[in-house]
Design a protein that fits this description.
125 residues, mainly beta, two-stranded antiparallel sheet, 1 helix
Length: 125
């Protein structure tokens, strides 16, 4: 079982599927960065490292689905997210915005939809 926890706006999300979390640290370079005309070497200044989180849940109860949906499918522009990029760094809290979530539909019966999975991406502000 996946023991990695993600908290969004103070609410702990349900456990993700096995290998359902991918963390990508993106390096952001200053406007003066690029290849030198003289040598072709890369030059410039690193401004920040921003994280992208790809999250995936499956086999959800209705309550778990609602919890995730309320967290990532929101009109709030930014979310406060607590996550652990590595054991060395430990848990950190950053501000993110969410991509459009994607919902896998298991079945629809009597007008009630049952979801099999939810995927979303969180991109650091």
């Amino acid at each position: 079982m996946n023991t990695v926890t993600i908290t969004i706006d103070g609410v702990q999300m349900p456990p993700m599927k096995e290998n359902g979390l991918a963390i990508t640290p993106h390096k952001l370079w200053a406007a003066n960065s690029g290849r030198s005309n003289c040598t072709g070497d890369f030059v410039g200044d690193l401004v920040a490292i921003k994280y992208e989180l790809k999250l995936e849940w499956e086999d959800l109860t209705d309550e778990q689905f609602s919890l995730i949906d309320n967290a990532v499918n929101t009109m709030r522009p930014f979310l406060t997210v607590r996550f652990c990029p590595s054991a060395e760094i430990g848990y950190i809290t950053r501000r993110f915005y969410a991509s459009d979530p994607s919902y896998g539909i298991l079945r629809v019966r009597s007008g009630k939809t049952r979801y099999s999975s939810v995927t979303a991406e969180l991109i650091e502000k």
